[in-house]
Fold this protein.
Amino acid sequence: MKARNTFPYIYFFEEPNVVYVYKIQGDDYITTAELSHQGEWETYEITDSFEGFNHEENSPLEGRGYFISQSHVNFMVGKINELIRKQRKGAYSLEKDGPVHLVSSASTAGALKVGLERPKTVIPFQDYFSIGPVWKLDKKSGQAYRHEWMNDNINLEQDEYELENNFTKALLEIEDIPEGVPIYIWTANNGNEQTGLRFFLHLMRNKTNQVFVLNTTELFEQWMGAKDERLYSSILNPNVLRFLFEKTQAANPLIREERMILKKEWEILVQTKEVLRLWKNGKVTSVPDDYFDALIIEVINELHKKQKKKDFIRTGRVIGEALHRMEEIVGDFYLEYRIRHLIYNGVLEIKGVPRSMRHYSVKLPD
């Protein structure tokens, strides 16, 4: 597939004679999932060269559709975002966009967008930093390694390139943050958000912006009078997040020494290929990938004892019970991955097709 552009239009040529014309209608980066309902699309068949094609001199096709492979859709998204980025340069305004908030989940981002007063910009990493390798994550090779591992092992029930697109989108948005804008990083005492905190600071290593860290575990205990070591920022509602943010307005930004400590901790993390990280003794700690296997087996064994006759148990029920008992929640996706691993190694028996945790059941062998 070839591409060329004349803003706000970008042309994509598919052999042997089809041209897709996309009109950019905003300055937000897009993903493969958003491609079909953002911007305007028209399709043309050409008889002359692609280089000389002008859509304004031709009539678009009507009532016909074409199949586009996922790899070509991903290519399109990359080219569209490149063009959007060129147009975004210098578009940020402190008065217009206000402070920038960085978070490690889409749900936290959604709550902040609802709860915080405008103006503000919220950038989410829709990733799962407690699981999957972070080896060389600041480089293309490391990102490809991580995305391949996630696609091969974690059933996220999304398009093939969606995780990669969301990751790249966040990288572009962070790079676009202008000097002078205050940056707030939301975190909590868990492997996911603490790993994210260190990665965010690494990405901003060349920025001189003031950076503030808001630890919701500590803030919730301080201002709400409740201690919850399993708290994630994503479980707090918009009103609580707004309240905690207002209470930290007089906080001091990270000083250089604090940023250097976190930077060094990140440099250690990116040298490893472990796929599971927890928050232990005030540090992001890599643990063996089978760390929760014993808990899964224990849960299944106890559920069997409640049955009149040992029978298959819905995977979703096993995961729900295991999540309730975990010292730190790493997400149902990881537990489902470990259950499949136990099946493949003969530790568990299966009934159904493991498309997702809703589609199959497991039991311990008789």
